[in-house]
What does this fold into?
Amino acid sequence: MKFSCALETSSERIRLVNVISPLIKAGYQLVSQRQESSSSGGNIIHVIARSIGAKTQADLIDDLSSIDGCTLFKLEIDEEDISSSAPVQTGEDEKTTLAAIGAQYPKITDIVSQYEASLPSEQRATALHQLGRKVGGGIYQRDYSLGSPLKMPTTISRELVPALKGFCKVKAKNNVVSLIKCPFCKSSDSNHSGCHFVIGYIEGFLASNPAIEAVQVEETSCGAGSTNICEFTIG
It folds into this structure.
């Protein structure tokens, strides 16, 4: 279910990051977001996003209305998207997996692999991507949300790369990030979904940065079964 909404904050101190963070944690995939000042002294937050899983319109309204310090005054839902979307069924419970990741981060390779193995093969890429977005967004909020947000490409070198170094050696040049000895596909052949977790992680991490309006990540080279160097391009 794809939707667009606008929320007005009660104070200028409530900013874009305070809105998108709970949405990511609630399981929404952000498409775009922006912030502008309101005439009442707060901010207007505009968000376009897509719900993931078995979310209803009532769930969406509850999630938006429960964001602290915000009033929902505009909501448009793509009716065609509702009929075409289907919830992703997961094997091992995602909430349990996220709790285990939180307890053992950054040593999470085995947890992600176990979660991947518990899923039907046709659902692994999507589910790993969703999981990665939630983890990446959470790490940005925990470790990098204080202070002035950094713009691209500075946020890549000064925030994203240090965050990814918890998993393995990382190199970055402009908007291309390479994981050396990528732990999510090191023992795999090309038939795996582990790198979808990394794609989601990078997207969720950068999407939580209020200085970045929209982000797309593509794996342009996977080293599974060969070099074990995975390359991701950020657009």
